[in-house]
Amino acid sequence: MAFDDRLERIVARSEEIQALMSSGEMGGEEFTRLSREYAELEPVVASIQAWQAAEKQREGARALLADPEMKELAQAELEDIEAQIPELEHNLRIALLPKDAADERSAILEIRPAAGGDEAGLFAAELFDAYRRFSEQNGWRFEVMEYAESEVAGLKEGMATISGRSVFARLKYESGVHRVQRVPATESQGRIHTSTVTVAVLPEAEEVDVTINDDDLRIDVYRASGAGGQHVNKTESAVRITHIPTGVVVAMQEEKSQHKNRAKAMKILRARLYERQRLAAHESRAADRKSQVGTGDRSERIRTYNFPQGRVTDHRINLTLYKIERIMAGDFDEIIDALTREEQTELLAAEGF
Hints:
By secondary structure, the chain is of the alpha+beta class. It contains nine helices and eleven strands.
């Protein structure tokens, strides 16, 4: 399909949906579906119209160049328009790229220490807090699902639901192994230690996204325990759910209620299964969740946080920033923006743009 024809079809479909929604002749479910489609098309149509308007202005300015009295003014206008068009065209091609269906969703964050013992647990806790602050800065809701502390106030396992618009689109690049290099507080000789933490960001799944049969679940209940093995309560409120066909296991003990822990565990399970399905459908990405976070070995990493040098390096795009304190305070925007641009560049090349 020719480029201009594709643009015309998008604008026509947007106008068709607008007319259908204004007619008042459809049920609630159909209206909701069309509203969602219209919301997706709206920014694309805006980019199309901005680019087309600039092209018309350019044609008008070129026509005026033949008029001696208007030539100087037309030349200035033409130069101004031609300076704007490349950016407008780039924005349009970005808007036309295939969308990840999960991008608009909320997300589930999982953080665990990997290599490095207590120091890995301490950094895992700091990274968990950094994402909490990043969420707050974006106006998202950060709800802790599970937070198991280690004996030294580090993190053994942390999970949170981050709710808001386009959360997954922004945070999906954070999945992988994060490496930290610094001198631990317990290090008397000032030696730098290297530790790793695994981060997984999963799109939040709805019940309609994943079919889970009760017969496929094994549910175990047990007593919740805190750091050092102290019992949080004397009832069997903790829940472990195993999805037998895939072997995916989710354990939850944050709540004192078995019912609440089960509900949270099912939410995590649903997200993990949805992500497995989603990744399987995209062969360019990993086939399952394990490949997303790796084994936690020091040689596998997407990013390094070097505290002595005050730098953070994202190895996927060779980006180094000397602002580690700001990043640990939740300022991830510069890194995420750069990763987003890199992905868009790859997609543009794949689409022949």
